[in-house]
């Protein structure tokens, strides 16, 4: 497993799908071990106590403007960084992360007077 960067998250469009219960004793190792146990290839930490697992970066997740933006220490290990609010410290056993972008709105293909309102 290796560090893949500091990613921007969104509360309404999460970058990783499987959020674990908040853990005030969270460490990088505990999050990775949880995700490995669930069969995932990505582990991400947010806000010192949150662990997310997935196999893909969803909703067009992007890198933060600076890696130093992810600066909050882990709840269970003050010498480790577990990101910050709306930011994720991401680790994976994959060489390259697969990023999935939301599909573009396609109003032209909707029937009758239907229209796309929101996602």
UniProtKB/TrEMBL annotation:
Residues 1-94 form the WSC domain. The lineage of its organism: Eukaryota, Fungi, Dikarya, Ascomycota, Pezizomycotina. PANTHER family: KREMEN PROTEIN, WSC DOMAIN-CONTAINING PROTEIN. It is a single-pass membrane protein. Keywords: Glycoprotein, Membrane, Signal, Transmembrane, Transmembrane helix. GO terms for cellular component: plasma membrane. This is WSC-domain-containing protein. InterPro entries: Kremen_rcpt, WSC_carb-bd. It comes from Glonium stellatum. It holds the Pfam family WSC.
